[in-house]
Fold this sequence. Notes:
By secondary structure, this protein is of the alpha+beta class. It contains 13 helices and 39 strands. It has an eight-stranded mixed β-sheet, with no helix packed on it. A seven-stranded mixed β-sheet has the order 1-6-7-5-4-3-2. Strands 12-39-38-37 form a four-stranded antiparallel β-sheet, with no helix packed on it.
Amino acid sequence: xxxxxxxxxxxxxxxxxxxxxxxxxxxxxxxxxxxxxxxxxxxxxxxxxxxxxxxxxxxxxxxxxxxxxxxxxxxxxxxxxxxxxxxxxxxxxxxxxxxxxxxxxxxxxxxxxxxxxxxxxxxxxxxxxxxxxxxxxxxxxxxxxxxxxxxxxxxxxxxxxxxxxxxxxxxxxxxxxxxxxxxxxxxxxxxxxxxxxxxxxxxxxxxxxxxxxxxxxxxxxxxxxxxxxxxxxxxxxxxxxxxxxxxxxxxxxxxxxxxxxxxxxxxxxxxxxxxxxxxxxxxxxxxxxxxxxxxxxxxxxxxxxxxxxxxxxxxxxxxxxxxxxxxxxxxxxxxxxxxxxxxxxxxxxxxxxxxxxxxxxxxxxxxxxxxxxxxxxxxxxxxxxxxxxxxxxxxxxxxxxxxxxxxxxxxxxxxxxxxxxxxxxxxxxxxxxxxxxxxxxxxxxxxxxxxxxxxxxxxxxxxxxxxxxxxxxxxxxxxxxxxxxxxxxxxxxxxxxxxxxxxxxxxxxxxxxxxxxxxxxxxxxxxxxxxxxxxxxxxxxxxxxxxxxxxxxxxxxxxxxxxxxxxxxxxxxxxxxxxxxxxxxxxxxxxxxxxxxxxxxxxxxxxxxxxxxxxxxxxxxxxxxxxxxxxxxxxxxxxxxxxxxxxxxxxxxxxxxxxxxxxxxxxxxxxxxxxxxxxxxxxxxxxxxxxxxxxxxxxxxxxxxxxxxxxxxxxx
Length: 716
């Protein structure tokens, strides 16, 4: 018997009461999902937090589906409205499923597009209505933070001061890459806007994810067009689609998404919608960023660059279509009505719109990068943070180290070989996935589950993969595979060998000895080649390297981390002393030496000029007043450090996981210890609901401290 879900609310607010299971509308076969709570509703669908039942084998869900998902269910009124137009709600869901399946099939999918994990239909009976088979899709659940979940919420949370150029540049790069991925796969989104972009991670490493492909145009999928758009974001040619309902408008193309993307970028930078008046907007008015009440002072100070950015965005959202658009078959039918509605704005002397997202990126990103660099230079001279950064939270010393532990078994053997991981060979991305390098192979796995798959690597990359020592987050997204003499960038399904740092005069550069790839900055540290010490090289894109910064450590560099005021590098001297250096964005340095302490092997920078580093059996705090050893309940060789979503530092040694407690008398409390005979620990990753620790065979534990309970979605 098929399970019928009942609701008395048009937005299905009460559908999750009692945590009902989702069953197939036709057969009644369980889908493997249980609704937990209502999250919200849009114009066409309601969204629920759902929990996967790992004991149910379901054809509706991907085998890499995480435990928590966002399930979107078409609303009854949407289904009725589509039926009146001779359309099906199943087709509405199919459009989004097909678009996101293409992204998922990239293996691994792009971190800049929301993940898809399954689809199906459920039997829902609205009040005073007969039961309806309503389609649902299971999506990546982007856990919100105090800064919000959607781009709209994040920008609103930024306050009157607006978004600084460093943060705006990072958000813009991610959104542009997400749209580029969709277009490469033959998907035109048609409804880009701030509410349709989710954002994962804390503000200093946040990752935008393009979402809601419900009205997308998908190449090869012949479905009736859904007539919908958002004024102020949707391109003017989309308004003309109403002239021929259910038919494809030949004037709509990738340039239509360019229009909406430019308007969304304006929103990020200006802190408000570009369109203040629909009549003026339709007439072609595209006001300057200078007119915004929330434009960050970092943009105001970059006078000439701001003019150039205005010009680039206006060309992105120009009502005048790219050359050749009106020559497309069937386009002439719309011309008369277009002249009536838009007149000179669409046919006059205004610059034509950028035809592709690549053209928009080429016009916008260099300006944003230059503005970000200028802001960093100005703020560093004043000794102020150059961008927003999560504050370091102090866990009270009297708070116990109780942690709700969920043991994660080792992943299945893949390709006939078990994983053998070493520190540095795992990297986490915001969202669901992490990457690992083992035995000359590259794997992708879920942060919270044991599911794992091997990534196909081109033949020419295999020698570099075998010599890879570190994995890191790449510049502008993706993953970097780095060895002592190579940097390979991996974005989506594409691998590219990046040029190594080199001097303008051709002088020698030492081998790579440490890597920076934390989502804020990307770079490598090379060993001393006769210049007086190791050197830090930075790159925005993996193709161009900055001039090196000399690290006067009087020793070797082992780890590097970035903060809002500069870079912290930790190392040692011939195995007999700890060494560290703080390198400010202004070039000023502070060197620390602790003779008699073991070399420092891992490090993490905090919200101010403070940082932590650890060596065998020792944890140290560094700030402007100097260096100090902090008490620890653990010991052993350190393998990783990091900040959780709330800014609390964590340390992983080969056998233990520790977390920093206390403000006055800090102590590193033990949260987990590997039992004798279990594999060594190698890596740590964070999300709002827990901490994923990985061991040498890809298993490990998930730690959920008691103070994480407030953010754990399944409680309360």
